[in-house]
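Page 42, continued from yesterday. The earlier attempt failed because a stray header line got pasted into the input along with the sequence. Redoing it now with the clean sequence only.
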Amino acid sequence: MDSPARASRHLVLPLALFAALGLVNLWQLGLQGVGIDFFQFWAVGQAVEESIVHDVYDPAARPELARVFLKRAEEGGSAPQRLAARFRSQEIQVSNSPLLYAFFHLIQGSGYEADFARYRLICIAGTVFSVLALCRRMGFTLAGSLAALAFVVWAFNPLVDDVREGNVNQIQLAGLAIFLVLPGGSDRIWPGLIRGAVLGAAIAFKPNLIFAAGLLGLGWILGRRLRTLVVGASGMAAGLLAAIVSSLLLFGSPRPWLAWARSLDALAGEFRSAVGWGNFAGGWLLRDLLGVNLSPFLYLLCISTVAGCVWLARRRASSRPGGPGKDEPLDVREDQILASLGPAVPLLAGDLAWPHYLVLTIPLLILLFRPRPGPSWLPWGASAALLLVCSRPLLETIGAGGDYVTAAALFCGAALLFVLGCAEAAGFATPHAGTASGA
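This time it went through. Structure tokens are written below.
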């Protein structure tokens, strides 16, 4: 009876070594990138501090920022800095929140290469924390957690893209992981406020996580958890306020938040990119193939599907003897699923999704692979989704890695993950829907 547990313990050391080697390999792969995204984030904070332009969110300022930082790179920058500056020689895109730029300004000061290395280290540490903490939360053994970490750092291609380009998906992953591992599922005020504040700050950092909050709110309303809704929304508002206050250290005024908010509609149209650049978003693929903007319909379809699954799960739970109960683990399980499903929605329905955005599906993957009290087909489906998400090297090896083939594989992988997450939300593949780990 104890032999599987003993075998699992014997695997801990080799798995830890394998994961450690994967981290070394990931770091080496990161050195091959010049940080074309990091360069933009890194430059904007300096531009604000030095008042290089009046308003960094003014579209007319972008070519001037590119000219200034290209000149600096050519005159005294390192080789990676020059390559990144040349890549961004036409304009530096300023599309993110003031909090994001304040964060990047906080970690710089030793030159481009040293700052980029420091940022990569922060990101990789955040990924290690996220994977191990989420696995622990979902009931994995230590060996299982290390196996998950080893797979992520060795074989999860979107993570390599994020490390090379210096984007922020690993930072966002850490914020989402903190939210998911904090105690939840009760009506206690302080835990709910803290969790809400974490998610609110993460949304203020980059707003594509708003779909995690939106699906959570939808679940709270359908479950008639109005107290949880009020507490969670209050916490998110507090997190947003803290983000605005903290960014004042760089910007000195809340006005950049207004400028950024006013620019969002225009930015959504400006930064659409063709499939040839790696964009695999469902809304854009259909627009490209059919010439019709179906993005609003896709968003409605995704949200309606999730709502139907939550309603079905609640109905099934209430039909069990004794009913669901106010603090039954179903609430915890539902929150975990909905927050994990959120990042998949813009991948399927939006107009822009780079491969490294798939880093934010890691919580959903871990949830689908979590240990269960009985047999389930979900891990098999998740394995198929992983094969699609990580298929680019294989497609390139066999000569089938065209732009549309790669985009279709990534989209299908994300769509399959979403469908499996909805099945989990509805309780279709869970022998005992209320047995997920409690708060």
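Notes: The first helix runs from residue 3 to 31.
Reminder to self: strip header lines before submitting.
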